[in-house]
Amino acid sequence: MFKRMDEIMIEIPDVEKPDPNAAAAVQELLGGKFGEMSTLNNYLYQSFNFRSKEKLKPFYDLVMSITAEELGHVELVSHAVNKCLRGSTKYKKPDSTPLASVKDARLSYPFLAGAQGAMPFDSMGNPWTGANVFNSGNLVEDLLHNFFLECGARTHKMKVYEMTDHPAAREVVGFLLVRGGVHVVAYAKALEIATGVDVTKLIPIPSLSNKSFNEAAKYEEKGVHTRLYTWSDNDFNAIEQIWKGTHPEDGLPLEVIQGVPEGVPIPEAPEVEEEFAPGISAEDFKQIAKRLKMSGNIRD
Predict the structure, then answer these.
(1) Does the pLDDT of residue 300 top 70, yes or no?
(2) What is the mean pLDDT of the chain?
(3) Number of helices and strands (H, E) in the chain?
(4) How do 227-229 and 255-257 pair as beta strands?
(5) How, if at all, do strands 7-8 and 264-265 pair?
(6) Residue range 53-77: mean pLDDT, rounded
């Protein structure tokens, strides 16, 4: 089962800088082949189909805990897209073409079908597909795939970071570079325990430290790259048998934390009247409030 909170993992800057093309680039980190929907669903189905989970509990716990974090990453990237899109259009009467300002946007589908919100697509508007999911049932093969997937995801994050300087995009991408790096190291350590091969000698892939990116470096200075969460109040603590020792890049001690990281409130999404969203007028709101009071037997 999953437990959900009305929070996201980090605070995303709220700036008046609409940039639909930046949003399109960030979409790659959501619905691309190496995006967060791919990492989430790869690990999700591996966790559903895991063989001999009692005998191989530390590996099972690792996949389970990282799966839960990936749900938070899908959520976080979606809000980054939303922040990049915010303010792209302004309300006008329909005959004044209020959406004309985005007719030449590289990816127009969020305006036509999503009211300026994130969608499960890549940067070119291709829908995410379950064909991106790999689950062989073979422990070493799946771990090796996951290591490769996280390295590929890291490459894509670095490229998106270099493509846009939008503060919301860079804040989220910088954080995900650090957390994705945790998953790279975690799968490398798991492969070493499973096979005896020191895969950590291969990293970082690409061979550029996260410290080269300002928005990632600040999170590493806080030790975010050394922590692996169980994402459960009581379960999955056998990851301590894998996530131990020191970080292969800077030698800092690794730490398993039972539970979840402290989050921040999910940002408010304002009305987009020109997109008919949420489509509730002031009078409608009064009537809804009145009916809610009646159903709750609340008196003024």
Answers:
(1) no
(2) 96
(3) 8, 4
(4) parallel
(5) antiparallel
(6) 98
